[in-house]
Specification:
Largest sheet: none
Helix content: 55-70%
Shape: rod-shaped
Radius of gyration: 12 Å
């Protein structure tokens, strides 16, 4: 995902963290 300008690093990092949490949540609920 390289759609955001460099100045939006905080937003990109936040999105990465949220996505990682989402993957963990899906993993936890599919077992």
């Amino acid at each position: 995902m390289h759609y955001f300008p460099a100045r939006d690093d905080d937003y990109r990092n936040g999105a990465k963290v949220a996505f990682r949490h989402l993957l963990l949540w899906i993993e936890k609920n599919h077992t």
